[in-house]
Write a structure and sequence with these properties.
Number of strands: 3
Largest sheet: 3 strands, antiparallel
Order of helices and strands: HHEHHEEHH
Number of helices: 6
Strand content: 5-15%
Number of domains: 1
Helix content: 55-70%
CATH topology: Arc Repressor Mutant, subunit A
């Protein structure tokens, strides 16, 4: 299999077109109105903890692309708001793990429900072939996200 940056007459994956389509979709998707107005970084930290489980601050710094002092301040605010908790790391009593709370997890669930509600009428306007195309791409998109997460560790 070959990958091309420009149009491919063989119908193989055009990485430039794929990247542009994802960027265009993300531009719309990340700006969907939500019930809870929280910063992108706050939502990203909560999402990371919801998916990955408890993490050390140093691990969160790597995934969130924010300075350690900035992340420490954010975690302090999230803890004050009841969205995360700090617990000693059972593997190393000197270290602390950041855990998402049920309230923090609920924010992600509500955001997902809000986004689904906004997407539903748009998806209804797609042709059956377009909906089938998206459905067929879901396993590959899921795998790409997994590969990206693994590469970032």
């Amino acid at each position: 299999m070959t990958f091309h940056h420009r149009a491919d007459p063989e119908g193989d994956l055009n990485v430039d077109e794929f990247t542009r389509a994802i960027e265009n979709f993300n531009r719309y998707y990340i700006r969907l109105p939500t019930v809870q107005k929280l910063s992108f970084t706050t939502l990203s930290v909560l999402d990371t903890l919801a998916v990955s489980g408890p993490l050390r601050l140093t691990e969160l710094v790597k995934t969130e692309q924010i300075s350690q002092p900035g992340l420490t301040q954010l975690v302090t605010r999230l803890e004050r708001d009841g969205l995360v908790e700090r617990h000693p790391d059972p593997a190393d009593g000197r270290a602390v793990l950041i855990h998402i709370t049920e309230a923090g997890r609920k924010i992600g669930q509500v955001r997902h429900e809000d986004r689904s509600r906004h997407m539903l009428p748009l998806i209804a306007q797609l042709t059956p072939a377009e909906r089938q195309g998206i459905a067929a791409a879901l396993p590959a998109l899921t795998r790409l996200a997994e590969l990206g997460t693994e590469a970032g560790r």
